[in-house]
Design brief:
alpha/beta; 2 domains; about 300 residues; glycosyltransferase activity; Spore Coat Polysaccharide Biosynthesis Protein SpsA, Chain A; 12 strands; two-stranded antiparallel ribbon; globular; 10-stranded mixed beta sheet
Length: about 300
Amino acid sequence: MKNRVGLVTVLFNSADVLPGFFESLSRQTFDDYWLYILDNSLDTLSFEAAQAEIAKYAMTNVTLIRNTENVGVAAANNQGIELGLQAGCEYILILNNDIEFEDVNLFGNMVSLAEQRGDKLITPKMYFHDNGLIWCAGGEIRKWRGTVHHFGEMQGDLPENSRTGYTEYAPTCFMLVHKEVFERIGVMDEKYFVYYDDVDFVWRSNQAGYKLLYWAEGKISHKVSSSTGGDDSPFSIFYSNRNRLYFIRKNYSPLVKYFAVAFTLITRLFKYMKYSNTSKSANFKKAMLAGLKMPLK
């Protein structure tokens, strides 16, 4: 029997966050889904933790795959997306596993909303897990800078953050996507490896005429950057800066591209100076060169 929704999540050093994730899953009243778990970890801890949680909740609607190497978030997401589409899922729910959600009807209400409105992409309100403030209530792509902006970040539930409506951007930490979108624009660009792959996907969906619905009544909490070491880690410094330049060069018109590249290089110079005489400065230099040299095809 076909499952209505394919859930896709990627593991990387995720053992500590999986209990909360699986507990949230276990409480859902909507069960017409298949869970695809792709493990990119370099050790077996996340895989074994996932096995333990699957056994704990006696889950049978799950496929757990351990990759032999870290293929990147984009490629691993594509593995799950393609498996879900091949299995006949109508929707793919891309979701992090460093998230938790209390509403037992979250999945069911999200799918019902998509059916009622005919929307092909839906994202909920996302909170910081540690302080309960908003992390993302929709957002925008600031193309002249090559960056994104989260609406409502570090705010409470103000009126402007509590209205359902269309938004230009949201990260794919929890995003329901109809199969039609993938059929038309394709899956994630695996050159990103990690970071900006979701920006690129949402940008392409916007360009194809799909609207992203921000669903203010849907709520999840996110343990931000729990797997990659935070935004200031050497790993994050390299990939976020390299991929920002790649995104700009790949997607923008010549005028916007030149301005955004110049803005990025100038602002990164100041950032580089902040980290001068540290190992992080080398990561900035390496990221800038890599981002400028990455082939676009």
